[in-house]
Amino acid sequence: MCSVYCEWIILKKNLFSQKGSAKHFLVKLLCFSKKGFLGPIGDDLPSLIPLLFGLVIFFATFSFAFQVFDRGNLAFDDAVKIVKISQGLKGDSYLGSAEEFFQSCQEVSVRGLNFKAFIVDYPKATIAMGAPGPPRFKILELTNEYPSTLHNFGVFSVADVPNCPFESLNPCPLACVSSSDLPILTGNERIQTRMFPIAFQDQKKCMPFENPLTDFCNNSGFIVRPLTLVVVTWRG
Amino acid sequence: MLNLKKVFNSRAQSSVTDAMYFLIIIAGLSAFMFVISNSYGQSIDRQMDSQYRVEYANSALKTVLYSSLPRNVNQSLAESTEVDYLLTAIKEDYANTRSLSPQTQLIVLDTVKAVMQPVSSAFDFMFFIYLPERVFADITPSGTGTGGTAVSTPGGTGTDASTTPQASQLVLLILKKTPIQTGSPISGRPDLGNEIPTGRNAFLVNNEVYFFCQPPDFQFITNRILPRLANLAKPLESRVYLSVFQRLGAGTGTETFDARANLILWTPTQFTDDELTKLDCDPESTVRASLPASP
Asked: Any idea where the domains of chain B sit in the sequence?
């Protein structure tokens, strides 16, 4: 409407010839200085909306992608460290003695990652003999209760090994931890587990007789048991 | 002139149009970045997982072969006065009879089961020991061979031996196979279109998982089964070279050669009836039933 009026005024009234008048000023202001709807800046104001929207979308996606890359890189870093820990503990899959296992545990040095390593008799650990229900693998229960014992667990001393019979119902694992003051798990940690079969050379020792009819002591030689090395890691 | 003025007065529209173009481009780039970030690291994850499985297979193979067993199989490991490596028992048994007794086979199976238990729910596997193809020297007791070139083999005895090329020979093959039934997943409901597997697949309905196989031609495994698994199930293989495998020759001499122990893991897949027939497998229960009753 405004542009139609301006055209009519210019063509019909010829007000340009009347310079200095208020009408001339108004016509000039409304009809000739106006290049768009509002003005040079006002005309661009509507375009700011999709611009801002686009920028918000771009930066939101950018930050999301960075978070994903960051998380992925952290996971890869952890995976490499887990491989390093596992190879340090496993060696060539043949452990000559418990002392060798503890020595390997001490030599493994990884920053930023807590770990606990077990050597367990996996078939026995997963089955509670004679108990109903599904098999229980309670050795790996890393609940809030367990770390309180883990906190005081420390590293098994060699003297404790003979007190840890493999043939009992609750196999006592050879275990080592990354440090003696592990933080208690809160439940939000990302826990990763790796299991490897290892051949463990065990000295034949005299064990406490559970059944005098079947148990007897034989100190000679050694036996190689197929056991499982379990490595559990989490970020502190 | 009127149209030109209309064009001049509509300059603000181009800014909005430019902004819309910008928005479209940004939306496209953001979608592309979103897709890339979702797939970031998947191939590395797969490689790390694959590496872990290979390491597991390597460790499992060594553990199985180095495990001890009591010389008297009726005793437990802790109470036995004499123990030896499982590999030694395999070599001894094979040297005497050129085959493994059911007892030795079951001891190997129990050890393999214990070692593979952490991953057995997710993978099928095959453990086999074989003698690779080579030229074997037939040693005659009197040394009077039929001619030919003498072949010196480590540990071999006799002279004037003839050479006989021999194909690869299987010593032991243990197959762990997850039962996979065809047809309707609901069994026992013929009205729902359940198809009962026929042929060799029929024994899978009995939930037999472990088998001892003796294919007449070892090449069937290397030329048919393994390539098929490579196409379908991405198998992971571990191999160990075993030395000083001996067996009695035709006379009083012995032949010494190298063997191979392989452990192959793959995600569960179904074999055809023809393949199972050619593998000639017996379930574990059949072999256990053939054992003499213990006193």
From this structure: 45-133+168-289, 134-166
Residue A20 falls within a domain, yes or no?
A: no
Any CB–CB contact under 8 A between A198 and chain B?
yes
Structure confidence by residue, pLDDT tens digits, B93-120: 888 778 888 888 988 998 898 888 888 8
- Supply the range of the domain harboring residue A192: 64-235
In a domain, A5, yes or no: no
Selected residues 92-151 of chain A with any CB under 8 Å from a CB in chain B: 92-94, 122-123, 126
B82: closest chain A residue by CA: A221
Q: Which of B11, B20, B30 has its CB closest to that of A35?
A: B11
Q: At residue A2, what is the residue type?
A: C
Phi then psi for B190, rounded to 5 degrees?
A: -60, -30
Give the Å distances, CA to CA, from A11 to A16, A29, B2, B98, B148.
10, 17, 11, 117, 123
Which residues of chain B does A196 touch, with a Cβ-Cβ cutoff of 8 Å?
55-56, 59
Is residue B153 within 8 A of residue B255, CB to CB? The reply is yes
ipTM > 0.85, yes or no = no
